[in-house]
Amino acid sequence: MTKMNRRLLAAVLTVVSLIWLIPSWLLVVNAFTLSSEYSGTPSWWPTSFSLFDNVRTAFENANVGQGMLNSLLYSVVGAGAAVLIAALASFAVTIMPLKRPTLWFWVIYIGTILPLQAFLSPLFTGYAAASLFDTQYGMLLVYVALTIPFAFFVVRGHMSGLPNEVREAASLDGASWVRMFFQVHLPLSTSALMAAFVFQFTWIWNDLLFGLTLSSSSNIRPVMATLADLTGNYSTYGPPVALAGALVASLPTIIVFFSFQRFFARGLNPTA
Amino acid sequence: MTLTQPPVPQEAVVAEGGHSPTPVVPAPRGRRPHLAGAAFLAPAVVLVALLIALPFVFTIYRSFFDDNGFTRSWVGLDNYVAMFTDPAFGQSVLNTLFWVVGTLVLPVGLGLAIAVGTWKLRLGGLARFAVILPYAISGSATAVVWTFMLSTDGGLDTLLRLLGLDPLVSQWLLQWPLNTVMMIIATTWQATGACVILFLVGLQSIPPSTLEAAQLDGASGWRLFWAVTFPQLRPMTIVVVGISIVGSLKVFDQVLLLTNGGPGTASETLALTMYRETFTLSRYGAGAAVAVFLTVVVVAASWAYLRRQLRPASN
Lengths: 272, 315
Known about the structure:
CATH architecture of one domain in chain B: Orthogonal Bundle
Largest sheet of chain A: none
Oligomer: heterodimer
CATH superfamily of one domain in chain B: MetI-like
Radius of gyration of chain B: 24 Å
Radius of gyration of chain A: 23 Å
Strand content of chain A: under 5%
Structural class of chain A: mainly alpha
């Protein structure tokens, strides 16, 4: 690359980065603006340091705090359970002498192909009939089921790539399979398990559709649904509170995302 | 874009590169090996069958009924006929097409450009950080930010006035097709980071010797990109394009939060139409018909695209 080209590229990239940072900048600056002083138009520079007041309003009056606790429960327990269940199934289709492993692969994998809307409304009806609507069990159950297929896809891909010596199984009974799974294959799949967990944690945390449709009360609703209500309630609390809530609600995924980035990349690489 | 719904089975992609997974070694049989296998498989299969597959089958069934949640009567194909003759449905299909094309050009194209452009650059990491940061911001939070950006006298309008571009000040979310275009841009802001990450992963798996050899042969800049880098990125490009197409066909959150499909039903996508029919109007049968249509489109698109792209590289 010539020097000229290199400079041009650097200039273009600088401009692109700056444009990209504008919404993030506005988000932070206006989340710091005192709610009662909000003029109706966005400010470009911080005028006060009221972030914590805004966060407190969002937490106490708009249920963002409760929503975050709910989401934390669903994301950690739901993604954890889904990854474990997916690992069991992956072990069965890649290591155990199972009939028709490809058929079973598709039976589980179909869950990533169907659009969520294809089963949303019967799920809603079924939840109402089974008294699972607006319960923590119900939310956990649906999140586990929804995140199994992709976790299975990631972990299975990893397990089928394990060296042959590890994959060869001796004559085993049921109890030995369990021991082999927990002592050999699970530890060997840590990176894939972590990647699957991070993805599914993030997915559950960010889900809006199921939070909106399968829950209604504030001590069950996940935080994204709460935030959606807050956006609709602009008039009640004002943009600074909504932005402060959005900022805090993004922290867990930002932290998880950047601290687990290396697991991410490895677990998803289709060419590795 | 969500990364949790990839349309590509790993074996399909891997097979092309030649690293086909080693075949399962038949293990000597222990006591009732199949029973043990069933026990390992059962939790996943039962949950997926009960909470995903069974409700889906019921959606198909319900699409042939006039169903208001309390009473249900058989109407045959009436829901489908009504759907295809509804002008709002045509608008919804058109908007969904906008999304498919828009998210292919913007997040995927920009993601590729930024990944390749910053890959070998000092301080390139800074540019990547700026682009990847919004990807880590949650979906609803993105909508909050962009409602704020695009509302009348919001962030974008103030910025334009600041720059003296008053004539450009618009009601961004109140006119079609401007609102759909702006929502695609908002999504681009959030989703490009994911594409950058995936393309970077792809770039890192290109053997350095391949690039060095090409450079020794005098390839650089555009030629290097088209002749070497881009073809080497093919498996990852297939994955990214596939995720993007499938994701944009199902787009829901951003539209619900930014315009709620409005004004009227002008910016509705298929997922929104299904949601409105089902949950706002309680027309479960009509909603189910839209859901079935959406499913057929998603499955057909994944299949058509993958069938073409994953053909063995014999050319």
